[in-house]
Structures are given as structure tokens and as C-alpha cells.
Design a protein that fits this description.
The complex is a heterodimer of chains A (about 100) and B (about 500). Chain A has about 100 residues and is mainly alpha-helical. Helices cover about 35% and strands about 5% of the residues of chain A. Chain A has 3 helices and 2 strands, in the order αααββ. A two-stranded antiparallel ribbon of chain A has the order 1-2. In chain A, α1 crosses α2 (about 20-40). The longest helix of chain A is centred in the first third of the chain and has 18 residues, at about 20-40. The two termini of chain A are about 45 Å apart. The relative contact order of chain A is 0.08. Chain B is an alpha/beta fold and about 500 residues long. Chain B has a single domain (about 1-490), classed as Alpha-Beta Complex (Amidase signature (AS) enzymes). Chain B is about 35% helix and about 15% strand. Chain B has 15 helices and 11 strands. In chain B, the strands form 2 sheets. Chain B has an 8-stranded mixed sheet, with helices on both faces. A 3-stranded mixed sheet of chain B has the order 1-3-2, sandwiched between helices. In chain B, α2 runs antiparallel to α3. Chain B is globular. Classes of the chains: A mainly alpha (about 100), B alpha/beta (about 500). At the A-B interface, α1 and α2 of A face α9, α10, α11 and α12 of B.
Chain lengths: ~100, ~500
């Protein structure tokens, strides 16, 4: 499989990375190179093989249902590019 | 006062405890060494006052019974670890000026053991790279130079390039690294130092900037195997804040060190004899087999048949996980925000375009593609199945051997710029390191010798899951026999 410029534009949109036409054009052969290389996995017979999900056997723990953290609003907002009135602020989304 | 920066962590600890010198003297000498080596670009932030404060506390506590295992030892911390109030950027513009209000579990463990911090160490952006050239701070320059007189600036390897260069140059006695697909072992090999990636789950990932969560593991890098054991003991341990953390006691690895490998079977995987590897590296590998034989171990040929598929598997799984993990950089909660665009969606896209470097964008794009509708099974599920087979290869091999010995990397350090225009050539650097990452196994690099250009080469030992002790012991056996004492000649 190889990707077309249109597909690359779509992937960039999904990934929320703005790209100029020139950047998109440059990206097409780069991605196709890498995708062509990883496609050698097609040679491997994986019939009946389960996909690996946990590399080291472990169990998911449950913890007691009680508050363990919180009351740190200012810490949470301390690194925000823009914070107003105790909230993260973003460009207007509704008119 | 003698040169304390030439001592190992074990020696520093002993000298400090016996009162031969103070922790403050150690910190002062290292702070001066750090400030005198800026040409290497190894540190992104220097924190001399942090090292001094920990040293003062250590000096005050010296005669008390509650002295931590790392009291009096200043360390460098890879910039991937969140450090409270100190810039933590993962080598990326998108995290410019980010000062975490919390401390990563691993660095907190080191502080609890009494260690101070010399500063944050440069690295490939989000740990994506094998040469340290993708850092927003510019590449780290290796302290090593080839003996061919070219004087070319060499890579210290990556992604823990700043960590490796700092130890090799004597501007940190030990450091933290992280290893997703070789990022501790390959730079350790390139710079003539030791580094161990423990079993996945030994070290908490909490507070480490995520790259590929099913692969990321922290580990120490230092001049000796013993120092690695001392550091790993302090870093590891169960952490309820990481759901993949292993709820197991931390063994006393340093006390358990023994280079007697009598009765151990050392596997030599035939698939690791690949074309294009310099003769020096294969010769060192053969020498390593002889060294281990000399300790009483028996070499056995083993087969890891899916070895050649490890890199392509990695380059589906790691970008897929990265594309998901890096979705959090949206210009809202922390880091960079691009202004001057109208909508929220445009702000996300503009921020990520300005904040991420080329390699990170490439991997996010690959990851987004292999996870997208219609391609998920063909790429991601397929890769997860091959990953099962790679893990099974190791399980079967460990039925006939106890440890595996391989070269760490297929080349010595290369010149900066040599591979940066060819992503796949760069990826191939980790051909020997990635399989153990995909299988979650403990693996270590130990320096074995110099190549014909006078550059360090490393040997890799891979162990069964949770057998860090076996890996460290074999590392010690190689260290004792290799007698590697070469140091880079100071030019910086």
C-alpha cells in the first residue's frame, strides 16, 4: 500500500498538524518509504497468533473508590498558556 | 583535593561515608565540571544549587543511621523526567518552559535515597532518535573523537545522548536514561559506559514524558556495572500510580553481584550475524563469548527467527502509541501555543506544527495512519501479532540458555549529520536493541573495547524477565575481563 498526497493531507488533519502544500509533498515519499519497509511483516505467518497486549504478565489493580488527589487548581493551571478565572482559556468556539 | 570526578559512585559513597571528603566537595567539583563542559551541549538546564543543597543535607546526616544509599551523590536527570519546578521539555519546543508542579516517581526515589541533581540532560525530541540530533536544543556532541584525525563531531547516540555524554565526559557520576527501543543501550555503547534497561514494569513510568507506553522503561547509566546496580536499586520499585508497575520487591542487586557464571548457558543468536556489520564488532562479540567461557559459562547457539521483523514491528507500534500519547500537546494546558489563528482547531494544528520537529511529526503521521480506519488491522494488529512471535522466540531460546550475548549496536558512533537525512538508516542503528524492548526483557550494554578508529564498542546482555541480577553479573564478568579504561581525550 502507498499513500497519496490526498491521504497524507487527511492524516495530517487527523493528527492536527498544519502542513503547507510543500510539506505535504515532501512527506508523501517519506511516509511511503517507511510504509514500504514495514510491509515486510506481510511475509510473517501470523495465523492463529494472538496480538500481544501485555508484554509482562500483570493484573490491573482496582483501588478503593475514594478521593486521593485534588485541591490543586492553581498547580494544574500553572503551566497553561492562557488561564482566566480559574479555567483554561481557548479561542472562542461558539458565536 | 584529588579529582573526585574520576571516581565511581561506589568509591564516592565510600569516601564520603568514611569522611575522606565531604558531599559538598563532590557537588562543588561536579558543578564546576558541568559548567566547564558546555561545549558538549549535554545539559539543557544546570541546577548547581540543587546538588549543593542535597550535599549539605548529606553532610549533616553523614554519621546518622538513616543515610540514604545515594547520600552525597549528585546525578544528571534526563529531560524526559518531570522534575518539580525545573524545566522539563523532553527536548521539544512544544514543552518550552514547562515546569512540572510534581516530581517523577523515579527521580523522587533517587532524591529519597539522598541524591542531588546536577541538571537536566539533553535528548532526542520525545526520545525519538538514535543520534540526539532531533533535540530542539541541538545535538549533544560526543566527548569521543575518532583517531583517524578527521576531528568530526560524533554523535553520543540517542535518545539518551546527553546522559551518555555526561557520564563519559565525567560531568556526572551517574544519570537516568530511558529506553523505548535502545535509548539507554546504544548511547552507552557509543560512549564507552554501562547502561541497563530493566524488565518492563520495574521502574515506574509515572512522571516520565510518555513516548510509547508499552515499551518505555527507565534505567541507569554509569561508568561501572556496580554503579548501575546501585542506581537501579534506588530507581526501581512498585508504584500504584503506574498501572503497569510490577508489584514486586526490589532485589538487592549490588550486594548480589558475582562474576562467577559457572553452569550458566550463554545463548549466541545466529540471526544477529548480519551483513554490513564491521569486523571489529563481530570480533568483539567472539571475544565476549570467550570471556564468558572463562567465567565458567557455556556458549550455546540459539535461534531468534523473527529478529529481522523486530524493527518494522517497532516502527508500527512505537509511532502508533506515540501518536496517541502526543495528542495531549494541544496548546491548552501546558507548553507552546501559537496565537494569531481564529478557531480552536486551527490553534491546535498551528501549535503542533510549530512545536514538533520533523522526526516527531513523521512518527505521529505514521502512527495516525496505522491506527486509522481501514488500516488498523493490516498494520497495528499485524505488528502486535508479530510482537507475540518475537516474545515467543525469546521464551523458546531461554529453554536452552540463561542469558543472551550480542553486540549492542551494528556500528560505532557515527558523525553528526551522517544519517540524519535517511530515517530508515537511522532506525537500523537499533537492530540489536529493539527485540529485547519488544519482549520487555532486561538488557544491558557494557563497554568491551575500542574499534580500529579508537571508538568504544559495547556488548549487550539480555536476560529472562526479572533476571536483572543475571544480566548484571554477566556484565560484571565482561567488565572485569575487558578491562576497559579508555577515556575520551579532553577537547571541550
Amino acid at each position: 500500500m502507498s499513500v497519496s498526497p490526498e491521504q497524507v493531507r487527511h492524516i495530517a488533519k487527523l493528527a492536527r498538524i498544519a502542513m503547507s502544500d510543500e510539506e505535504l509533498e515532501r512527506m508523501v515519499p517519506e511516509l511511503n518509504n517507511i510504509l514500504g519497509w514495514v510491509e515486510q511483516l506481510g511475509e510473517v505467518n501470523t495465523d492463529g497468533v494472538e496480538p500481544l497486549t501485555a508484554v509482562i504478565p500483570n493484573t490491573l489493580r482496582l483501588r478503593e473508590d475514594r478521593v486521593t488527589d485534588g485541591n490543586c487548581r492553581d498547580d494544574v493551571l500553572a503551566n497553561a498558556p492562557v488561564a482566566e478565572h480559574g479555567f483554561f482559556a481557548v479561542p472562542k468556539v461558539i458565536e | 583535593m584529588s579529582d573526585l570526578t574520576s571516581l565511581s559512585i561506589a568509591e564516592l559513597r565510600e569516601g564520603f561515608r568514611s569522611g575522606e571528603f565531604t558531599a559538598r566537595e563532590i557537588a562543588e567539583q561536579y558543578n564546576a565540571a558541568v559548567a566547564g563542559a558546555r561545549a558538549l551541549n549535554a545539559y539543557t538546564v544546570e541546577t548547581p544549587e540543587d546538588a549543593l543543597a542535597a550535599a549539605s543535607a548529606a553532610d549533616e546526616a553523614r554519621t546518622s543511621s538513616e543515610l540514604g544509599s545515594l547520600a552525597g551523590i549528585p546525578l544528571g536527570i534526563k529531560d524526559l523526567f518531570a522534575t518539580r519546578g525545573v524545566d522539563t521539555t523532553a527536548g521539544s519546543r512544544i514543552l518550552k518552559d514547562f515546569k512540572p508542579p510534581y516530581e517523577s516517581t523515579v527521580s523522587a526515589n533517587l532524591r529519597k535515597a539522598g541524591a542531588g541533581m546536577l541538571g537536566k540532560l539533553n535528548m532526542d525530541e520525545f526520545a525519538m532518535g538514535s543520534s540526539n540530533e532531533t533535540s530542539a536544543y541541538g545535538p549533544v556532541i560526543s566527548p569521543w573523537k575518532a583517531a583517524d584525525g578527521s576531528n568530526a563531531a560524533l554523535t553520543p547516540g540517542g535518545s539518551s545522548g546527553g546522559s551518555a555524554a555526561a557520564v563519559a565526559a565525567g560531568i556526572a557520576p551517574g544519570v537516568t536514561g530511558t529506553d523505548t527501543g535502545g535509548s539507554i543501550r546504544q548511547p552507552a555503547a557509543f560512549t564507552g559506559i554501562c547502561g541497563i534497561k530493566p524488565t518492563y514494569g520495574r521502574c515506574s513510568r509515572w512522571g516520565i514524558v510518555s513516548f510509547a507506553s508499552s515499551l518505555d522503561q527507565a534505567g541507569p547509566m554509569a561508568r561501572t556495572v556496580r554503579d548501575c546496580a546501585i542506581l537501579l536499586e534506588a530507581m526501581a520499585g512498585f508504584d500504584p500510580k503506574d498501572s503497569t508497575s510490577l508489584d514486586l520487591p526490589v532485589p538487592n542487586w549490588a550486594a548480589g553481584l558475582s562474576s562467577d557464571l559457572k553452569g550458566k548457558r550463554v545463548g549466541v543468536p545466529k540471526e544477529y550475524r548480519i551483513d554490513g556489520v564491521p569486523a571489529d564488532i563481530n570480533a568483539l562479540w567472539d571475544q565476549g563469548i570467550e570471556w564468558l567461557k572463562d567465567t565458567g559459562a557455556t556458549p550455546v547457539e540459539i535461534s531468534l527467527p523473527h529478529t529481522k521483523y523486530a524493527l518494522p514491528t517497532y516502527y508500527i507500534i512505537a509511532p502508533a502509541e506515540a501518536s496517541s500519547n502526543l495528542a495531549r500537546y494541544d496548546g491548552v494546558r501546558y507548553g507552546l501555543r501559537e496565537e494569531g489563528v481564529k478557531t480552536l482547531d486551527d490553534m491546535y494544528a498551528a501549535t503542533r506544527a510549530a512545536g514538533f520537529g520533523a522526526e516527531v511529526k513523521r512518527r505521529i503521521m505514521i502512527g495516525t495512519y496505522v491506527l486509522s480506519a481501514g488500516f488498523y488491522d493490516a498494520y497495528f494488529t499485524k505488528a502486535q501479532k508479530v510482537r507475540s512471535l518475537i516474545k515467543r522466540d525469546f521464551e523458546q531460546a531461554f529453554e536452552t540458555c540463561d542469558l543472551i550475548l550480542t553486540p549492542t549496536a551494528p556500528s560505532a558512533a557515527f558523525a553528526l549529520g551522517d544519517k540524519s537525512s535517511d530515517p530508515i538508516a537511522m532506525y537500523l542503528n537499533d537492530v540489536f536493541a529493539v527485540p529485547a524492548s519488544l519482549a520487555g526483557l532486561p538488557a544491558m550494554s557494557v563497554p568491551g573495547g575500542l574499534d580500529s578508529d579508537g571508538l568504544p564498542l559495547g556488548l549487550q546482555i539480555i536476560g529472562r524477565e526479572l533476571d536483572e541480577q543475571g544480566v548484571l553479573n554477566a556484565g560484571l564478568a565482561i567488565e572485569e575481563r575487558a578491562g576497559f579504561t579508555a577515556k575520551p581525550k579532553r577537547w571541550w
